[in-house]
Amino acid sequence: MSFKEGRIVYLHRALPDPQGGDGDYNRPWIIINRQSQLDRGDDLTIVASTTSFEKPVPTTSPYVPLRSGKVGSAGLPRESVAHCGWVYYLPREDVRDFGGLIELRELAVIRLKVDEFINNNGLIREVEPR
Fold it and tell me: Rounded to 10 degrees, what is the CA torsion of 36, 97, 17, 117?
C-alpha cells in the first residue's frame, strides 16, 4: 500500500489524546493531506478516529461519522468518527501499517471541520521524528 489522501494508517507509537491521556497504539489515523502533497513527499497531516462519541453525532461537534464494517472501504470494524480536533503533523516514518480508504465525501467534510477547528483554536500538534 502507499500514502494516499483518506488512507487509514497505524503508527509506531501512541499519540496523546486531547484530554492529555497516553493514547492508543492501535488507533486508526486518517491522512488528510492532498494527494499532490503526498506525491511530493510532504510530512503527514493526520486526524484520529475514535469509537467514543455522542450519538447521534451533533452537527456542531468536531466529529465526522465514518462508514464501518463491510459497507465501508476503510476497514473500520466498529462504528467510528474522525475527531477533527485531534490533529497531528508527523513524519512518514512513524507509519507502521496501512488500512483502507475513507470515502472522498467524508474526507471533504473532515478537511472543512479541521480548518474550522484550527481557525477557532489554533491548535495543531507536531510530532518530533523518532
Answer: 20
